[in-house]
Specification:
Elements: H1 12-87, H2 90-94, H3 98-110, E1 114-120, E2 126-130, H4 144-152, E3 154-156, E4 170-176, E5 182-189, H5 191-198
Antiparallel strand pairs: 1-2, 1-5, 3-4, 4-5
């Protein structure tokens, strides 16, 4: 009688060993790939935040630099107005034709920045005026800008309507007369000239640049 033992499955040993090796290799490969994926996603978020921070820092720098340029533009014009008030007294400026000549000289020197020019008495009366509006004889005694100039000696206003009923802003200087009564030299700023300075701060083809005098008060137009 022959001994019929079941044949040995010799092939099963290397096959199982090969599968085990493949599983181990898969684990070894997938572990660093998973780590790389996590690191990659994390690096993307870090890079995105870093890029956003850099863009924001750049825009803040641009805004600060341009704001300083606008302040310099206005301060230079205010100082020029103050120089006129120191060089000429009230009687000279209110004499016929003199205010017109002064306005032309200022605009020739400072790029048509001044829309009009006026001399205001200590009691608010408009003594002399050169410009396109009917303002001669108007009284500014109870206006905000008049109070500011009276107390500070020089002032640049926010945008307001005033007697002309047109949005504008002014700069003014006070000078004390020999009789103890002060007078004011006031000019409104040419909005077109001012806006040409403001829009120089635009960046790119869609960037906007505005001057705000309050939470919702825009002083310069968009594109």
């Amino acid at each position: 009688m022959h001994d019929r033992r079941a044949p040995l499955k010799l092939a099963s040993v290397p096959t199982s060993l090969q599968a085990l090796r493949l599983r181990a290799l898969a684990i070894l490969v997938s572990a660093p790939l998973g780590t790389l994926a996590v690191v990659g996603v994390g690096a993307w978020f870090v890079l995105e935040d870093l890029l956003a921070t850099k863009v924001e820092e750049h825009l803040v720098t641009v805004v600060k630099d341009h704001a300083a340029a606008i302040d310099l533009f206005l301060d230079e014009r205010l100082n020029a107005l103050g120089l006129v008030a120191r060089l000429y007294d009230r009687d000279v400026l209110t004499a016929p034709g003199n205010l017109k000549r002064v306005l032309a000289h200022l605009n020739g020197s400072y790029g048509t920045c001044y829309r009009d020019l006026g001399v205001i008495a200590h009691d608010g009366r408009h003594l002399a005026y050169e410009g396109p509006y009917d303002l001669l004889g108007k009284n500014y005694q109870h206006t905000q800008w008049f109070e500011q100039v009276r107390s500070k000696a020089h002032y640049i206003s926010d945008v307001f309507l005033g007697f002309r009923k047109v949005p504008h802003f002014i700069m003014a200087v006070r000078r004390d007369g020999p009789d103890g009564k002060f007078w004011i030299l006031r000019a409104s700023v040419n909005s077109d000239t001012f806006n040409e300075v403001v829009v120089l701060g635009r960046t790119g083809s869609t960037g906007e640049c505005f001057v705000l005098s309050g939470p919702a008060a825009m002083e310069s137009p968009g594109r």
